[in-house]
Amino acid sequence: MNKLFRPEQIILKDHPEITERIIQEKIAEDPSILGLGDLILKDKERIQPRAGRLDLLLYDPELNKRYEVEIQLGKSDESHIIRTIEYWDIEKKRYPQYEHCAVIVAEDITSRFLNVIGLFNGFIPLIAIQMKAFKFDDKIGLVFTKVLDEMELGLEEDDDNEIEQITTRDYWIQKKASNETIQIADTVLVLLNEVSSGHDLRYTKYNLRFSRNGQFVPYLTVRPRKRKHVVLALKTAKSDEIDKLIEENDLDDMGYMAKGSKYRIRISSEDVTLKREALKEIIRLAEKKYND
């Protein structure tokens, strides 16, 4: 009978052969070892404009979400935290069509820095992972433990307080959108009323919502942008029928978000004219599936 033994913990920072690059390669080979799900490697050593290089960029296709990962052997420190947040911010601004989360990986995340990191959580989606290394004979095993998780924030569409944040059409035109994109939202309202009548458009702080008999419609919102398009969001279970309509009509699909069960489609004034019937059918299916 083999004897059980306690593996020896080692400090990678003091190891003569193990480097951050080696750890980076191991995570790149199998991102799931971080414990963040079945992620895909998008890039490593990603050059940042007027900054350094992001260690790893990982992607969750189900959530349409990217993770900006920075690795540090030894203790996490101020520069590690600042660098991680800086790279997260750069990527978020460059690719706003995705959700983004900053990920700090270090051998030792002290209570002091855990408290500092925790202050950002809720404002910056941030995860802290502590990495431990153990020696088994001539092999080294890595264990990753999440010590700070991303704070879950409510979707803006589902904010119970949103009814208290009613704005106006002028507010949206002046601050967040344009006449052209507000008119696209008007056309979406027409399409919705052709599916089922009696809706009107309400202007809230975060997006434009549709109401019927004084109640917000829960499955459909629209968010006008400054430039020539709106983002149509449909809260519904994933559907082969909707997927087919999006693909066959070459609509600008921003990806289905499993978290929140939501389709997002970027539509222009040309879309609501040339692809009117397809959009109307998508709205009809979303309404039906939500009410089933």
Q: What do these coordinates show?
A:
With 292 residues, the chain is α+β, with helices and mostly antiparallel strands. The protein folds into two domains: 8-148, 3-Layer(aba) Sandwich (Trna Endonuclease, Chain: A, domain 1), CATH 3.40.1350.10; 156-291, Aspartate Aminotransferase, domain 1 (Alpha-Beta Complex). 32% of the residues lie in helices and 33% in strands. It contains eight helices and 13 strands. Strands 1, 2, 3, 4, 5, 6 and 7 form a seven-stranded mixed beta sheet that branches. A six-stranded antiparallel beta sheet has the order 8-9-10-11-13-12. α5 crosses α8 (276-291) and α6 (240-248) packs antiparallel against α8 (276-291).
List keywords for this structure.
292 residues, alpha+beta, Trna Endonuclease, Chain: A, domain 1, Aspartate Aminotransferase, domain 1, seven-stranded mixed β-sheet, six-stranded antiparallel β-sheet, 8 helices, 32% helix
> Based on helices, strands and strand pairing, what is the structural class?
alpha+beta
Secondary-structure arrangement, i.e. CATH architecture of the largest domain: 3-Layer(aba) Sandwich
Overall mean confidence score, pLDDT:
85
Largest sheet: 7 strands, mixed
Q: What gap, in angstroms, lies between the N and C termini?
A: 59 Å
DSSP E strands, number: 13
Residues in helix, %: 25-40%
Which blocks of ≥5 consecutive residues have pLDDT under 50? Answer: 152-164
